[in-house]
Amino acid sequence: MPPVQLIALILGGLLLLALLIRRTVGKGFLYRMIFETDTPAGKTFDVVLLIAIVLSVGAVVIESDPVLRLAWGHPFQLLEWGFTLLFTLEYLLRLLCVRSPLLYARSFFGVVDLLSIVPSFLGLLVGGAQVFLVVRMLRVMRVFRVLKLGEYLQESNLLWDAIVAGRRKISVFLLAMITLVTVIGSLMYVIEGPERGFRSIPVGIYWAIVTITTVGYGDVTPQTTLGRFLASVVMLLGYSIIAVPTGIISAEIGQASARQHEESQKTAVMCAACLRTGHDPEARHCKFCGAEL
Predict the structure, then answer these.
(1) The pTM is what?
(2) Which domains occur in the chain, in start order?
Protein backbone atom coordinates (compact mmCIF):
# COMPACT_ATOMS: atom_id res chain seq x y z
CA MET A 1 0.00 0.00 0.00
CA PRO A 2 1.37 3.46 -0.89
CA PRO A 3 2.53 5.48 2.14
CA VAL A 4 0.04 8.29 1.53
CA GLN A 5 -2.90 5.88 1.47
CA LEU A 6 -1.60 4.12 4.59
CA ILE A 7 -1.36 7.44 6.46
CA ALA A 8 -4.87 8.39 5.35
CA LEU A 9 -6.20 5.00 6.48
CA ILE A 10 -4.53 5.29 9.91
CA LEU A 11 -5.76 8.83 10.50
CA GLY A 12 -9.25 7.98 9.30
CA GLY A 13 -9.50 5.01 11.64
CA LEU A 14 -8.24 7.03 14.61
CA LEU A 15 -10.69 9.84 13.84
CA LEU A 16 -13.59 7.39 13.82
CA LEU A 17 -12.38 5.94 17.13
CA ALA A 18 -12.09 9.44 18.63
CA LEU A 19 -15.63 10.30 17.51
CA LEU A 20 -16.90 7.06 19.03
CA ILE A 21 -15.17 7.82 22.34
CA ARG A 22 -16.59 11.34 22.44
CA ARG A 23 -20.09 10.07 21.76
CA THR A 24 -19.77 7.32 24.37
CA VAL A 25 -18.41 9.33 27.30
CA GLY A 26 -19.81 12.73 26.36
CA LYS A 27 -18.02 15.89 25.27
CA GLY A 28 -18.24 17.53 28.70
CA PHE A 29 -16.76 14.60 30.58
CA LEU A 30 -14.08 14.19 27.92
CA TYR A 31 -13.08 17.86 28.27
CA ARG A 32 -12.88 17.67 32.05
CA MET A 33 -10.82 14.51 31.89
CA ILE A 34 -8.32 15.87 29.36
CA PHE A 35 -7.97 19.53 30.30
CA GLU A 36 -8.73 19.66 34.02
CA THR A 37 -6.90 17.92 36.85
CA ASP A 38 -9.36 18.66 39.65
CA THR A 39 -11.09 15.33 39.08
CA PRO A 40 -9.67 11.83 39.68
CA ALA A 41 -10.27 10.94 36.03
CA GLY A 42 -8.41 14.03 34.85
CA LYS A 43 -5.42 13.44 37.07
CA THR A 44 -5.27 9.76 36.14
CA PHE A 45 -5.46 10.59 32.45
CA ASP A 46 -2.58 13.07 32.61
CA VAL A 47 -0.38 10.89 34.81
CA VAL A 48 -0.79 7.97 32.38
CA LEU A 49 -0.06 10.36 29.51
CA LEU A 50 3.11 11.59 31.20
CA ILE A 51 4.32 8.04 31.73
CA ALA A 52 3.72 7.30 28.05
CA ILE A 53 5.62 10.44 27.03
CA VAL A 54 8.64 9.57 29.17
CA LEU A 55 8.67 5.97 27.91
CA SER A 56 8.38 7.06 24.28
CA VAL A 57 11.26 9.52 24.61
CA GLY A 58 13.32 6.89 26.41
CA ALA A 59 12.71 4.44 23.57
CA VAL A 60 13.86 6.99 20.99
CA VAL A 61 17.02 7.77 22.99
CA ILE A 62 17.91 4.09 23.50
CA GLU A 63 17.20 3.27 19.86
CA SER A 64 19.84 5.80 18.76
CA ASP A 65 22.50 3.28 19.87
CA PRO A 66 23.40 1.32 16.69
CA VAL A 67 24.04 -1.94 18.56
CA LEU A 68 20.66 -1.89 20.32
CA ARG A 69 18.89 -0.75 17.16
CA LEU A 70 20.39 -3.69 15.24
CA ALA A 71 19.43 -6.21 17.95
CA TRP A 72 15.98 -4.83 18.84
CA GLY A 73 14.98 -2.91 15.73
CA HIS A 74 11.55 -4.52 15.31
CA PRO A 75 10.39 -4.09 18.95
CA PHE A 76 11.56 -0.46 18.86
CA GLN A 77 9.54 0.11 15.71
CA LEU A 78 6.45 -1.42 17.29
CA LEU A 79 6.88 0.76 20.37
CA GLU A 80 7.30 3.87 18.26
CA TRP A 81 4.10 3.26 16.32
CA GLY A 82 2.22 2.25 19.43
CA PHE A 83 3.06 5.54 21.11
CA THR A 84 2.41 7.47 17.91
CA LEU A 85 -1.08 6.01 17.55
CA LEU A 86 -1.79 6.73 21.22
CA PHE A 87 -0.65 10.35 20.96
CA THR A 88 -2.50 10.84 17.68
CA LEU A 89 -5.71 9.61 19.25
CA GLU A 90 -5.16 11.89 22.24
CA TYR A 91 -4.54 14.88 19.92
CA LEU A 92 -7.75 14.19 18.01
CA LEU A 93 -9.71 13.88 21.27
CA ARG A 94 -8.37 17.25 22.38
CA LEU A 95 -9.51 18.85 19.14
CA LEU A 96 -12.94 17.23 19.37
CA CYS A 97 -13.73 18.34 22.93
CA VAL A 98 -12.75 22.03 22.81
CA ARG A 99 -15.02 24.76 21.52
CA SER A 100 -12.37 26.17 19.20
CA PRO A 101 -10.19 23.40 17.73
CA LEU A 102 -8.22 25.89 15.65
CA LEU A 103 -7.36 27.95 18.73
CA TYR A 104 -6.03 24.89 20.53
CA ALA A 105 -4.12 23.72 17.45
CA ARG A 106 -2.33 27.09 17.34
CA SER A 107 -1.52 27.16 21.07
CA PHE A 108 1.92 26.17 22.41
CA PHE A 109 0.88 22.71 23.61
CA GLY A 110 -1.23 22.21 20.50
CA VAL A 111 1.80 22.75 18.29
CA VAL A 112 3.95 20.51 20.50
CA ASP A 113 1.29 17.78 20.43
CA LEU A 114 1.23 17.92 16.64
CA LEU A 115 5.02 17.91 16.30
CA SER A 116 5.22 14.86 18.57
CA ILE A 117 3.26 12.71 16.11
CA VAL A 118 4.26 14.11 12.71
CA PRO A 119 7.78 12.52 12.57
CA SER A 120 6.44 8.95 12.60
CA PHE A 121 4.10 9.61 9.69
CA LEU A 122 6.77 11.64 7.93
CA GLY A 123 9.12 8.68 8.39
CA LEU A 124 6.91 6.68 6.00
CA LEU A 125 7.76 9.24 3.32
CA VAL A 126 11.25 10.39 4.34
CA GLY A 127 13.73 8.13 6.10
CA GLY A 128 15.31 9.26 9.38
CA ALA A 129 12.54 11.65 10.41
CA GLN A 130 11.85 9.62 13.56
CA VAL A 131 14.79 11.23 15.32
CA PHE A 132 12.64 14.33 15.81
CA LEU A 133 10.37 12.34 18.12
CA VAL A 134 12.41 13.64 21.05
CA VAL A 135 10.24 16.77 20.78
CA ARG A 136 7.77 14.75 22.83
CA MET A 137 9.89 15.59 25.86
CA LEU A 138 8.47 19.11 25.70
CA ARG A 139 5.12 17.65 26.63
CA VAL A 140 6.53 16.67 30.00
CA MET A 141 6.08 20.35 30.85
CA ARG A 142 2.50 19.37 31.62
CA VAL A 143 3.81 17.81 34.83
CA PHE A 144 3.69 21.23 36.50
CA ARG A 145 -0.07 21.35 35.94
CA VAL A 146 -0.84 17.67 36.23
CA LEU A 147 0.83 16.82 39.51
CA LYS A 148 -0.21 20.07 41.16
CA LEU A 149 3.38 21.12 41.76
CA GLY A 150 2.16 24.67 42.09
CA GLU A 151 5.15 25.88 44.04
CA TYR A 152 7.53 24.90 41.24
CA LEU A 153 5.36 26.48 38.57
CA GLN A 154 5.06 29.66 40.61
CA GLU A 155 8.82 29.82 41.13
CA SER A 156 9.51 29.41 37.41
CA ASN A 157 6.95 32.12 36.60
CA LEU A 158 8.51 34.31 39.27
CA LEU A 159 11.95 33.98 37.74
CA TRP A 160 10.63 34.63 34.24
CA ASP A 161 8.71 37.72 35.39
CA ALA A 162 11.86 39.03 37.06
CA ILE A 163 13.89 38.53 33.88
CA VAL A 164 11.27 40.27 31.76
CA ALA A 165 10.97 43.17 34.19
CA GLY A 166 14.74 43.64 34.31
CA ARG A 167 15.33 43.16 30.59
CA ARG A 168 16.39 46.79 30.02
CA LYS A 169 18.90 46.72 32.87
CA ILE A 170 20.22 43.38 31.69
CA SER A 171 20.47 44.71 28.12
CA VAL A 172 22.53 47.69 29.31
CA PHE A 173 24.76 45.34 31.31
CA LEU A 174 25.30 43.06 28.30
CA LEU A 175 26.09 46.05 26.08
CA ALA A 176 28.65 47.24 28.62
CA MET A 177 30.15 43.74 28.75
CA ILE A 178 30.40 43.56 24.94
CA THR A 179 32.18 46.90 24.93
CA LEU A 180 34.50 45.84 27.74
CA VAL A 181 35.57 42.53 26.19
CA THR A 182 36.11 44.25 22.84
CA VAL A 183 38.47 46.76 24.44
CA ILE A 184 40.28 44.10 26.49
CA GLY A 185 40.58 41.77 23.50
CA SER A 186 42.01 44.55 21.36
CA LEU A 187 44.54 45.46 24.06
CA MET A 188 45.61 41.84 24.43
CA TYR A 189 46.05 41.55 20.67
CA VAL A 190 48.33 44.59 20.71
CA ILE A 191 50.27 43.42 23.77
CA GLU A 192 50.76 39.74 22.89
CA GLY A 193 50.56 39.72 19.11
CA PRO A 194 50.03 36.85 16.63
CA GLU A 195 53.30 35.13 17.55
CA ARG A 196 51.88 34.29 21.01
CA GLY A 197 48.53 32.94 19.84
CA PHE A 198 46.55 36.19 19.64
CA ARG A 199 46.49 36.18 15.84
CA SER A 200 43.51 38.54 15.55
CA ILE A 201 41.27 40.83 17.60
CA PRO A 202 38.39 38.27 17.56
CA VAL A 203 40.76 35.77 19.20
CA GLY A 204 41.56 38.42 21.82
CA ILE A 205 37.83 39.02 22.38
CA TYR A 206 37.30 35.26 22.73
CA TRP A 207 40.08 35.13 25.34
CA ALA A 208 38.55 38.10 27.18
CA ILE A 209 35.11 36.43 27.32
CA VAL A 210 36.57 33.13 28.55
CA THR A 211 38.64 34.92 31.19
CA ILE A 212 36.12 37.46 32.43
CA THR A 213 33.49 34.74 32.88
CA THR A 214 36.04 32.73 34.93
CA VAL A 215 35.78 29.76 32.56
CA GLY A 216 39.45 29.70 31.59
CA TYR A 217 39.89 27.07 28.87
CA GLY A 218 43.63 27.77 28.62
CA ASP A 219 43.86 27.26 24.86
CA VAL A 220 45.14 30.85 24.47
CA THR A 221 47.23 32.35 27.27
CA PRO A 222 49.29 35.54 27.66
CA GLN A 223 53.05 35.10 27.96
CA THR A 224 54.42 38.60 28.45
CA THR A 225 54.57 40.34 31.83
CA LEU A 226 52.20 43.10 30.72
CA GLY A 227 49.80 40.56 29.22
CA ARG A 228 49.71 38.53 32.42
CA PHE A 229 49.14 41.68 34.46
CA LEU A 230 46.17 42.56 32.26
CA ALA A 231 44.91 38.98 32.57
CA SER A 232 45.08 39.23 36.37
CA VAL A 233 43.04 42.42 36.30
CA VAL A 234 40.46 40.80 34.01
CA MET A 235 40.19 37.78 36.30
CA LEU A 236 39.56 39.94 39.37
CA LEU A 237 37.13 42.04 37.35
CA GLY A 238 35.26 38.90 36.37
CA TYR A 239 34.45 38.01 39.96
CA SER A 240 32.99 41.46 40.63
CA ILE A 241 31.01 41.52 37.39
CA ILE A 242 29.23 38.25 38.24
CA ALA A 243 27.44 40.03 41.09
CA VAL A 244 25.86 42.64 38.80
CA PRO A 245 23.23 40.49 37.01
CA THR A 246 22.63 38.62 40.26
CA GLY A 247 21.73 41.87 41.99
CA ILE A 248 19.48 42.95 39.13
CA ILE A 249 17.57 39.66 39.11
CA SER A 250 17.34 39.57 42.92
CA ALA A 251 15.78 43.03 43.06
CA GLU A 252 13.29 42.18 40.32
CA ILE A 253 12.41 38.87 41.99
CA GLY A 254 11.39 40.76 45.12
CA GLN A 255 9.05 43.00 43.14
CA ALA A 256 7.70 40.12 41.06
CA SER A 257 7.03 38.12 44.23
CA ALA A 258 4.78 40.89 45.53
CA ARG A 259 2.87 40.97 42.25
CA GLN A 260 2.54 37.19 42.15
CA HIS A 261 1.10 37.12 45.65
CA GLU A 262 -1.90 39.03 44.36
CA GLU A 263 -2.50 36.35 41.74
CA SER A 264 -2.00 33.38 44.06
CA GLN A 265 -5.68 33.08 44.93
CA LYS A 266 -6.80 32.61 41.36
CA THR A 267 -7.81 29.18 40.13
CA ALA A 268 -6.28 26.96 37.44
CA VAL A 269 -9.62 26.17 35.79
CA MET A 270 -9.19 26.40 32.02
CA CYS A 271 -11.81 28.11 29.88
CA ALA A 272 -13.14 25.77 27.23
CA ALA A 273 -13.50 28.62 24.74
CA CYS A 274 -10.20 30.53 24.94
CA LEU A 275 -8.11 27.92 26.85
CA ARG A 276 -6.90 30.50 29.40
CA THR A 277 -6.59 30.14 33.17
CA GLY A 278 -6.22 32.55 36.10
CA HIS A 279 -9.87 33.09 37.00
CA ASP A 280 -11.08 34.22 40.41
CA PRO A 281 -12.33 31.42 42.70
CA GLU A 282 -15.94 32.66 42.59
CA ALA A 283 -15.93 33.30 38.81
CA ARG A 284 -18.65 31.65 36.77
CA HIS A 285 -17.65 33.19 33.44
CA CYS A 286 -14.26 33.64 31.79
CA LYS A 287 -12.87 37.14 32.38
CA PHE A 288 -11.11 37.05 29.03
CA CYS A 289 -13.83 35.95 26.62
CA GLY A 290 -16.99 35.82 28.74
CA ALA A 291 -17.73 32.14 28.14
CA GLU A 292 -19.29 30.12 30.93
CA LEU A 293 -16.79 28.18 33.04
Answers:
(1) 0.57
(2) 3-148 (no CATH), 159-263 (1.10.287.70)
